[in-house]
Amino acid sequence: MARIASLIDTAAEDFRANAAQMRALALALEARRAEAAEGGPKPARERHLERGKLLPRDRVMHLIDPGSPFLELSPLAANGMYEDAIHAAGVITGIGRIEGRECVIVCNDSTIKGGTYYPMTVKKHLRAQEIARENRLPCIYLVDSGGANLPHWTEVFPDREHFGRIFYNQATLSALGIPQIAVVMGSCTAGGAYVPAMSDETIIVRKQGTIFLGGPPLVKAATGEVVSAEDLGGADVHARHSGVADHYAADDRHALAICRRIVGNLNTRKRIDLALAEPREPAYDIAELDGIVPVDLKKQYDVREVIARLVDASEFDEFKKLYGTTLVTGFAHLCGMPVGILANQGILYSESALKAAHFIELACQRKIPLLFVQNIAGFMVGRDYEAGGIAKDGAKMVTAVACAQVPKLTLIIGGSYGAGNYGMCGRAYSPRFLFIWPNARISVMGGEQAASVLATVRRDNIEAKGDTWSAEEEEK
């Protein structure tokens, strides 16, 4: 493969100014993530520790291999969506390495509203299970939850992608041979009791973990029986009598050590069907991306400069370089793995769409994963382009993306607008992972275009009623 020749002048004023702006955005994002990572309010965290529990993020860190990374998913989920601050949607999800094996980890944060499930909590939990299914990763559930959040029950309980889908997924994942392991480290109430009950192996912590379909207040209301939470569904009940739990742990650390031992005994092996190469660092400094990709989405740049700082040795075998030039396509390696890249270099025309469909077909024939690098305003519009069949050509690209039977990953580094989002494998087209940079924007169209369309619709409505569209309203 040929190395991409970079033409970037890192000493240029524009480069330095943009790098400063991008770093400011990154720092703001880091601050928001740090705030979300704190979990619930300080009194709730203190009560949690007084009970002898590890904080949720400490549980995750004690579970994964020492010094190994944890890829957290949706760390800002539910940000600003509810009256109270439900940081990270009240659940930590991500991928971590346990005994050398990548696993999906779902950890309830009981310092936030008792770990109860808000609508976004459910969505985040289901997304983690989807990732586990697509990548055949064992699921580890660190359970400490009061179940569904009752004030939001209509958005949590009854529908297909609501709370019950968690247990459906557990059953079907287990049937596919994807291990399901639960560590009960606190409350596990009502429907939530099915998380450990439907797992392949379950660990429960003494004097801390409880499992019951109906808690003491409900039992008293329904039967008149007065019983403590520990006597109703504590560790001794389920490890010694009911058999719901398979392992009895003295405390959080002991439970996590048992979980690590279970993962070590799974006898699973990662199958790799790709021709791997020796991983190599890019020839150019990846930190230079801060100055290359503009914060102002109207500014143009050569996306090859981005590719050069992502792929191994900055080597890129470009496909159809002289045709459909507003889309850059080609093959490269990422960390030694072959990958087909589609990266926007402007608006999508018919030629770009046909080029994309052809390239995706090639990648699928060769079983090479696809990486979509999005910075797209959409497909070209206008009378000549409509007459030229851009709708049909765009549909061919969208069809190719939808039907691609290889792993797809999406990286949004700028705008992601309208049908361009679809053609470049937006969320609706099931990329295995979707990452977004802090300068990026996702919308049905750009702000100026949306304002113009809405103004036109309003003017037409006013004039249809026989009224006049004033110059002042046009200025607004």
Question: Can you give a write-up of this model?
Answer:
There is one protein chain. The protein has 476 residues and is an alpha/beta fold. The chain has two domains: 39-265, 2-enoyl-CoA Hydratase, Chain A, domain 1 (Alpha-Beta Complex); 286-445, 2-enoyl-CoA Hydratase, Chain A, domain 1 (Alpha-Beta Complex), CATH 3.90.226.10. It is 39% helix and 18% strand. The chain is built from 19 helices and 14 strands. It has helices at residues 13-37, 42-50, 56-63, 119-135, 153-156, 164-175, 194-197, 216-223, 229-233, 235-242, 252-264, 289-292, 303-307, 350-365, 383-387, 390-403, 418-423, 447-464, 471-475, and strands at residues 70-73, 91-98, 101-108, 139-145, 180-188, 201-205, 247-249, 317-319, 327-334, 337-344, 370-376, 408-417, 433-436, 441-443. β5, α7 and β6 form a beta-alpha-beta unit. α4 runs parallel beside α6 and α14 (350-365) packs parallel to α16. The N and C termini lie far apart (53 Å).
